Amino acid sequence: MDGISRVAVLTGAGISTDSGIPDYRGPDGVWTRDPALVDAFTYDSFMADPGVRERFWRTYLGHSAWRAEPNAAHRALAALEGTGVAVRILTQNVDGLHQRAGSSARKVLELHGSMHEVVCTGCGQRSPSRQTLDRVAAGDGDPRCPACGGILKPAVVLFGEHLDPGTAGLAERIAAHSEVLLVIGSSLLVEPVASLCAVALNAGHRLVIVNRDPTPYDEPAAEVIREPIGVAVPRLCAALTEAAGSAVRA
Question: Which residue numbers delimit the Deacetylase sirtuin-type domain (predicted)?
Fold first, then answer.
């Protein structure tokens, strides 16, 4: 890690499992335990079927992410900001735990949106999720926009939706200009996010992967780390901090 001053960090569901949020495809993942839930998180099904929306909102209301707290990996990445390393976090997660751990909001790019907002698919109005969830808890199974009556949707990218082009383009630029792309807890099976690894590699940068299971990019990676994320990430951040400090002292 010597001489590294610019690091892009791509995080997936695996970084939040230590916070009590299950991943999606692991042995105890959301889709593994209940494959039918995939429909509820698919845009076309969500928009077409009130019953799917009702199931979605019931599941969303009880999601463990609402009660989750940042863990050691989130905190280590936030602390890295205070060193001589320029850190940008590209996250597939919608839980907001990077920001709650202390990472600057302007340094966190939420590729798949945020679960803390709801957007109207009719007029585009955004509002805090809590307002809609309170309505669901009170018995409104398919809440509609109070302004126009349109279908409300969490401000996250559901299956079948495209990433915002501006967000995707910025992520590519960050991956192309960072000396290291550190991937944490991502299966790298979801496009176009997974292709950020190819962007970094094609630019001649190092790819480091911290993940429990194999990924499609393990072979070209400079390093693949299988130890628990809560152990590996603080260790890597400490190494980057030391390297930055050595560079400053030199």
Answer: 1-250
> Measured between alpha carbons, how far is 64 from 44 in angstroms, rounded to an integer?
25
90, 111 Cβ separation under 8 angstroms: yes
Kindly state the average pLDDT of the residues 34-55. 86
Q: Known catalytic residue: 116?
A: no
197 assigned ligand-binding residue: no
pLDDT of residue 84: 78
Is 123 annotated in some ligand binding site?
Answer: yes
| 237 in a labelled binding site | no
145 marked ligand binding residue: yes
**Minimum mean pLDDT range among 63-77, 120-134, 230-244:** 230-244
Using DSSP bridges, classify how beta strands 152-156 and 180-184 pair: parallel, antiparallel or unpaired: unpaired
178/157 Cα distance (integer angstroms): 25
Residue 159 has pLDDT above 50, yes or no: yes
Q: Specify whether the CB–CB gap between 178 and 4 falls below 8 A.
A: no
Q: Which residue in the list 74, 98, 112, 116 is annotated as catalytic?
A: 112
